[in-house]
Amino acid sequence: MPTWRALALMFRVPRRGRGFWFSFAIDLIWPLLAVVTRLRFRGGEKLPKSGGVLLASNHLSFADPVTVTAFSLASGRIPRYLAKASLWRIPLVKRVLTGGGHIPVERNTAQARHAYLGAVEAVNKGECVMFFPEAGFSDDENHWPSRKVKNGVARVALETGAPVVPVVNWGTHALLPATAKFPKLFPRKTVDIVAGDPVDLSDLNGTDRETINEATKRIMHAITELLATLRAETPPTR
User: Fold this and answer.
1) Among 132, 75, 80, which residue's Cα sits nearest to residue 102?
2) 88: helix, strand or coil
3) DSSP string spanning 51-73?
4) What is the DSSP pairing of strand 189-195 with strand 37-42?
5) How far from chain centre, in Å, is Cα 232?
6) What is the DSSP letter of 197?
7) Cis peptide before 187 (omega within 30 of 0)
8) How confident is the model at residue 181 (pLDDT cuts 50, 70, 90)?
9) Could you identify which of 4, 134, 140, 153 might form a hypothetical disulfide with 147, taking C-beta atoms 3.0 to 4.6 angstroms apart as the criterion?
């Protein structure tokens, strides 16, 4: 979309429920994103306008939470993220995360379950909760989903019955490569974000390991196929 349209969109997205500091961060970063990139959003109508929903995305760059937040807001939903608990120890970041209703994750500890319970609670309250199932950047040389995925989004979906909407980013790896300290602003990068149809999990019941693994596999398949369609390429067979 043209820069002027991306800037105008900022004033039409949801504001109530964002918290002061999360809202301040959005208002600060959105204009920069609109100026330094060409944003192309598609599939926003796939996100339900109300009620609990889960978004599951591929992960290419530290820029992904910024672009997915912009897409989610443009689609009428305020995203809540699961983020590593250490970020809450940074005073200003803590204000942004707490005010935005985000959920701390104590990785590799017994307290990690609290994040799962927090996500379930948020979804049951009608929130939009965002997951990056790979829990890290793709390590595939062609940027296809490649990492061993976490099953959190599948577990929350099976527990709550909330729809899982696949979302794909493409272009953020060129804007802010995983190994770069600063964004690469020139030439101006195009960033595509596309949402697909909710993943069909209707035949799955229970939260046993086999069922969770099947749900996880379907979610990642949906993400990969959506990315393949966006890129007009064939993903590798794994």
Assistant:
1) 80
2) helix
3) S-EEEEE----TTHHHHHHHHHH
4) parallel
5) 22
6) P
7) yes
8) confident
9) 134
pTM: 0.94
Q: Do the beta carbons of residue 233 and residue 225 sit within 8 Å?
A: no
Burial of 148 (0-12, 13-18, 19+ CB in 10 A): exposed
**Burial of 80: CB neighbours in 10 Å, binned 0-12, 13-18, 19+:** buried
Fold for the domain defined by 3-231: Glycerol-3-phosphate (1)-acyltransferase (3.40.1130)
| pLDDT one-digit tens code per residue, 39-62 | 999 999 999 999 999 999 999 999
**Tell me: the pLDDT tens digits for 106-141?**
877 767 788 999 999 999 999 999 999 998 898 889
Please answer whether residues 63 and 32 qualify as being in contact, where contact means their C-beta atoms are separated by less than 8 angstroms: no
Residue 50: both structure tokens together: 């109300």
pLDDT tens digits for range 209-221: 999 999 999 999 9
Task: Name the one residue in this structure whose structure tokens are 């995360």.
Answer: 97
Please state the rounded mean pLDDT for residues 23-47: 95
The amino acid at 104: P
Residue 173 · residue 184 · CB < 8 Å = no
**pLDDT value, residue 238:** 67
Angle of the 64-74 helix axis to the 20-36 helix axis, nearest 10:
100
Angle between helices 20-36 and 91-99 (to 10 degrees): 100
pLDDT higher than 70, residue 155: yes
Residues 222/195, Cβ–Cβ less than 8 Å:
no
Q: Identify the DSSP state of 140.
A: S
Query: What integer is the mean pLDDT of 72-99?
Result: 94
